[in-house]
Task: structure prediction
Amino acid sequence: MEHMHGGRLTEMAQKNNLDPDEIIDFSANINFLGPPSLLLEAIKSNINKIENYPEINSKSLKNDIAKKHFLDPEQVTVANGAAEMIYQLTKILKPKKVMVIDPTFSEYELAAESAAAAVEHFSLSKKADFKLDLEKLKISLNKDIDLLFICNPNNPTAHLLKTAELESLIQKAVKEEIIVVIDEAFIDFLTDPDKYSTIKLLDSYNNLVILKSMTKLFAIPGLRLGYALTNKSLSLELETKRDPWSVNYFSQLAGEIIFSNQQEIKDYVKLSQEKIAAERKYLYQKLKKFKKLKVYQPTTNYIFIDISETNYNSAELKQELSKAAILIRNCDSYYNLQDNYIRVAVKNRKANKILIEKLKIILE
Result:
């Protein structure tokens, strides 16, 4: 199983003889507003700091994150993107068996395999619109499973679980001695993320790990920044058994600005949530008008689509759109999905209109 993700602009440009800057990238779920100007200005004005080492273990940023979430700094591990923590967790915990809920983010399975763990797949049903049957999952949990990964909202289906639903699952996991990792990479795109986040449960459950990403909402995938929240003992292991400089200076600087409580950042987050909600509604309604597409209800900044009633499989439709310099996510690399599913990010109105017009030409 290889690392298959969106945002492969260079590959598409080379294949189709395009300039990467011409491509409208619907394959990567990144905030279309771009990074806050405050971040860009800070990086530019501190470019000379590139000759210095970053702060070991990002201690200043760790304190800022802890303050934001009303936690102890010892519960926070800052990372080079949330993906670093996925691999660090399997490295430290050394699970014999890991459960993943498919289809979902592929790095959970790859991280498990990197630690020589067996992977048990809990497959979501197409008949149930890929919604998680919580009771069935709880019945499936047993002491043979050491680690459970849950993506909330799920990628690529966008299905979302409420905090109370997740707590009932965590409680069952406690009885079975299972560590639950909840990946909240896309939760902050919601207008009411606190309604779904499990951060409020951290101090009640020692078996809970929460992963957060700054990459998506703040549009800084080239920098890489995320963090893990968990109990102090596990957090210490995650911290001490890795490269102390895994997070570079500019990522640390960006993080310190993001968590600085400045009004400009608060305004940026609010504007992002409002703009994405509006464009999500627009794009969803326009896509629903295509009779041959089954468009799943979106919750965050991407939309999951079944194209099996069209004359194209996902690879073919991706290639047709690439001729118009549009890149979508072909979902055939996701476990438990065939070659008739795609995912598109929510972009700005101009880009969304271009996608709809090109789909009309191809599908109608």
